[in-house]
């Protein structure tokens, strides 16, 4: 019987290549995108022509920080799971310095606020005056409701067991 051969390491010493591969697909962080949404969303949708960027920088998804080659590719992107996941991640308010201080014990805990975020309007709608909305969701509490005022919370009486 022969010895089991050891697998050879093929790419020894290519850490410079690994770094390049690791950061190639790097996108903007959620807090940076949130800042863009609040301050300059209209400016990012209506960018000047830039010949170096895909689609000459005319088709840009503000939520995902991506450029697309044409409007059909961008509209197709709006229906993908990647875009919907990003919208879901942007619903929660980004982590702030005040929140980190509260976590360290310098204040009381506050739950992160949920917001309602919609997909960005088309270029024609932005020119007409429509803007990206970032609204806080209002959460109602049912602690004050009683079964008499709230029929959804009323308990049902169970039928008694039947004898056979």
UniProtKB/TrEMBL annotation:
Chief place of localization: cytoplasm
A GO cellular component entry from the record: cytoplasm
Subcellular location: Cytoplasm; Nucleus
Domain C2H2-type: 59-88
GO BP: ribosome biogenesis
Biased composition range(s): Basic and acidic residues: 115-142
SUPFAM superfamilies, alphabetized: beta-beta-alpha zinc fingers
Chain positions covered by the region annotation Disordered: 99-164
Keywords: Cytoplasm, Metal-binding, Nucleus, Ribosome biogenesis, Zinc, Zinc-finger
Single Gene Ontology MF annotation: nucleic acid binding
Protein role: Involved in pre-60S ribosomal particles maturation by promoting the nuclear export of the 60S ribosome.
Oligomeric and partner information: Associates with pre-60S ribosomal particles; released from the pre-60S particle very early in the cytoplasm.
Family: Belongs to the ZNF593/BUD20 C2H2-type zinc-finger protein family.
Protein name: Zinc finger protein 593 homolog
Taxonomic placement: Eukaryota, Metazoa, Ecdysozoa, Arthropoda, Hexapoda
């Amino acid at each position: 019987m022969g010895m089991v051969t050891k697998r050879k390491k093929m790419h020894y010493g290519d850490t410079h290549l690994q770094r390049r591969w690791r950061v190639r697909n790097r996108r903007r962080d959620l807090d940076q995108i949130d800042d863009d949404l609040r301050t300059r969303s209209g400016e990012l949708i209506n960018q000047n022509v830039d010949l170096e960027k895909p689609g000459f920088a005319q088709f840009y998804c503000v939520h995902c920080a991506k450029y697309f080659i044409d409007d059909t590719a961008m509209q197709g992107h709006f229906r993908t799971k990647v875009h919907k996941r990003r919208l879901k991640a942007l619903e929660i308010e980004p982590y702030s310095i005040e929140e980190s201080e509260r976590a360290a014990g310098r204040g009381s805990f506050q739950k992160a606020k949920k917001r309602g975020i919609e997909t960005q309007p088309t270029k024609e709608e932005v020119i007409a005056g429509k803007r990206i909305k970032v609204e806080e969701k209002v959460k109602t509490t049912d602690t004050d409701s009683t079964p008499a005022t709230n029929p959804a919370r009323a308990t049902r009486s169970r039928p008694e067991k039947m004898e056979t």
